[in-house]
């Protein structure tokens, strides 16, 4: 493709990061974390998130999100806690094991950002990040 769409170029970069993170997580011994589980866990917020929100953001059914959260919970990556805003609801939060995996992922993400900065130069990398941040205003309903 001579002139790929910017969205395809962003996807290629995101897929590269996902692959590098996945390889590092596997190398660190977390071999029970599937790509689908990792994508669901990546949507967790520090203050927790409901399964319905995971489903909405991941564009999967609530049932699929529930299955993924069940798998994450059985593997001790997440836990369900009461939602302080609604006694009937539960929030999904990272468990200690999930925080350990998150640290591995964040280390790889920072390493990739340093690699990209070396490749592009600090000024172009800053402009790239600023442009992507600006695009969130019109592309990310969950920002």
Automatic annotation (TrEMBL):
PROSITE patterns: HTH_MARR_2. InterPro entries: HTH_MarR-typ, MarR/SlyA-like, WH-like_DNA-bd_sf, WH_DNA-bd_sf. Residues 1-137 form the HTH marR-type domain. Gene3D superfamilies: Winged helix-like DNA-binding domain superfamily/Winged helix DNA-binding domain (1.10.10.10). Pfam families: MarR_2. One of its GO terms (biological process) is response to stress. SUPFAM superfamilies: Winged helix' DNA-binding domain. GO terms for molecular function: DNA-binding transcription factor activity. Signal peptide: none annotated. PANTHER family: MARR FAMILY REGULATORY PROTEIN, TRANSCRIPTIONAL REGULATOR, MARR FAMILY. This is Winged helix-turn-helix transcriptional regulator. It comes from Nocardioides albidus.
């Amino acid at each position: 493709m001579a002139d790929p769409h910017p969205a395809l170029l962003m996807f290629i970069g995101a897929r590269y990061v996902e692959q590098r993170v996945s390889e590092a997580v596997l190398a660190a011994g977390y071999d029970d974390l599937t790509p689908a589980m990792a994508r669901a866990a990546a949507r967790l917020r520090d203050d927790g998130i409901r399964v319905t929100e995971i489903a909405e953001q991941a564009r999967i059914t609530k049932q699929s999100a529930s299955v993924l959260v069940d798998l994450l919970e059985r593997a001790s990556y997440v836990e369900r806690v009461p939602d302080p805003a609604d006694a009937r609801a539960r929030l999904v939060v990272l468990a200690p094991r999930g925080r350990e995996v998150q640290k591995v992922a964040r280390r790889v993400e920072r390493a990739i950002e340093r690699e990209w900065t070396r490749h592009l130069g600090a000024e172009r990398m800053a402009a790239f990040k600023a442009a992507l941040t600006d695009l969130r205003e019109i592309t990310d309903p969950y920002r």
